[in-house]
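Internal tracking record. Fields below are filled automatically when a chain is submitted to the structure queue. Please do not edit lines marked as system-generated. If the sequence contains nonstandard residues, flag them in the REMARKS field before resubmitting.
Queue: standard
Priority: normal
Entity type: single polypeptide chain
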Amino acid sequence: MAINRIAAAYVYTLDAAEPIRNGFVEYDDADGTVIRTGRCEDTSAEEVLDCAVVPGFVNTHCHVELSHLHGKFRKGTGMAGFIDQINALRDWAGKEVKQELVRKWMDKMWADGVSAMADISNDDSSFEIKKNHPMYTRTFLEVFGSEPEMCEGVMADVAELKKAADASGIDAAPTPHSCYTMSPQLLSASSAAGLESGFLSYHSQESQEEEDLLLTGTGAMYENRKRSGMSTPPVTGESSLKYFLGRLAAAKTPPYDENILLVHNVCLSQGDIDAATQVMKNVYWAVCPLSNIFIHDALPPIDLMRANKLAITVGTDSLSSNDDLDMVKELYCLHSNFPDVPMAEMLEWACLNGARFLAKDDVLGSLAPGKRPGIVLVRNIGKDGFVTGESYSERLI
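SYSTEM-GENERATED OUTPUT FOLLOWS
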């Protein structure tokens, strides 16, 4: 075993609430297995880098197959305007172009230190790249269909897509998209398929427009759906998350032991948290702050989420709603808006909680002896150990 060692001003093992100041990580140079961490006894005797060492990131929400949409969308259009842009632009590129850009951005994420990703796919353009890539990916095969009569055909199509994913050797299963793109029947059917796999990812409470659709049957999202000739979900007078819980119960009797990821959570309330945590025993809450700002200049209620000790994770969303797929930029956005959150806690969201959601925390997520999480340097760190506007990450191993 060839043991290597790196020392830095801050080492975030994520096994403790605070980083190790002037700490070190020893690791197997061959496969990156962490051997030992600790505090440098004599900083004058070895080079201590002026940076932070962190475990590899876990991006828990991405649509990497939409990388061909980079730089093509207007900002600040709200969800209804964003959907119109998706419908107009998502099919401009052929499969070869999409694959080239998927590879480019997955390579960039890997170089930036992303060790695993929960990714959304609507087609097979990313499968072969994922199969051969060092980044671990669990792929959620997302379905849409607003009309009840579409349900059987949509589920048959996603079953074929799963066969293609299985043939590529990647972990993948169907998952629902959101309340506003699916009939009640399809929402339950796709949820059942996701739960059967043990994992489910769902766009939840991303915008007030989504809430208005369920609460009152009004607003920009409602007008967008009706203008497009699409059916809308029933007006329940309750939040979209509570509506989802009802459709989930139609698919399988609660409680749920499966790993469930609720993505965005911009309009999350205490009542929603109570309702979800009552029936979801392994629920994770993904935040994608730069995407939320890009589309409708809003952020999730981080203080409320922390007060409830929710298992928060971090995602980038896609290049249709973000300028980059950079986890450090997401952390800096969170730090800028919620400066009281300790850096170690934010890194737990961006690394360890994501690994737990993917059931890969035996290998990924923290700098613990025996794990192989990837070792990442965060440069231009602030004197207090926080990310700055100039911070960037690079993979060491």
